[in-house]
Amino acid sequence: MINRLASAGTAAALLGMAAPVLAQEKVGPPPALVDQLTAVARENLPLARLKDGSQVPAETAEERAQPIVPRALEVQTIDRALLSAAMNVCGLDSDELSYLPYMRAIRESARYSDKQLAYVGLLHGVTLGALEPTLDASICNPELIESFKQEAGSAPVATP
């Protein structure tokens, strides 16, 4: 699924940015990383599933030329996926503590179509898959683990 990341020579450099992003408080992911991850998610959108279980239809060139969701939501989703990745590395259940509550909040906002929700879920998964292997379990300590739990439970979910 993440064929573009696997083959891109610059991907390793971009993914290496995950640790500094994680270590810094309230700093978003670098724009180049956002561009790379969103491109991979958008390219693989036809592999995602809609609520009814069907696949997302392939996009036309005109559709692909337009943003599918606001950039702020993409950045927020990548931030959440990085938190989820760190939680997984530290042995926490990121699905229950981070991903599912995040997606529920976005869904309950009723601002996004089924296709947009599928994209957000796919972007989270692409980011998680790309960044989790770059994190080292040595980052885990009781204080950090507790901060991950608090962040996942209290981080506001904006719906730009």
Characterize the main sheet. Answer: none
Tell me the span between the first and last alpha carbons.
28 Å
State the share of residues found in helices, binned by percent. 55-70%
Global geometry:
globular
Structural class: mainly alpha
Would you identify the regions where 5 or more consecutive residues have pLDDT less than 50?
A: 1-24
Number of helices: 9
Instruction: Please provide the count of β strands.
Output: 0
β content, as a range? Answer: under 5%
Round the Cα radius of gyration to an integer and report it: 15 Å
* Helix and strand run: HHHHHHHHH
Care to describe what's here?
This protein is mainly alpha-helical. It is built from nine helices and no strands. The protein has helices spanning about 5, 10-15, 20-25, 30-45, 60-65, 70-90, 95-110, 115-130, 140-155. Helix 7 (about 95-110) runs antiparallel to helix 8 (about 115-130). The chain is globular, with a radius of gyration of 15 Å.
Quick tags:
mainly alpha; 160 residues; disordered N terminus
List the helices and strands and how they pair.
Layout: H1 3-7, H2 11-15, H3 18-23, H4 31-43, H5 61-64, H6 71-89, H7 94-108, H8 114-131, H9 142-154
Helix pairs in contact: 4-8, 6-7, 6-8, 6-9, 7-8
Q: Summarize this, please?
A:
This protein is an all-alpha fold.
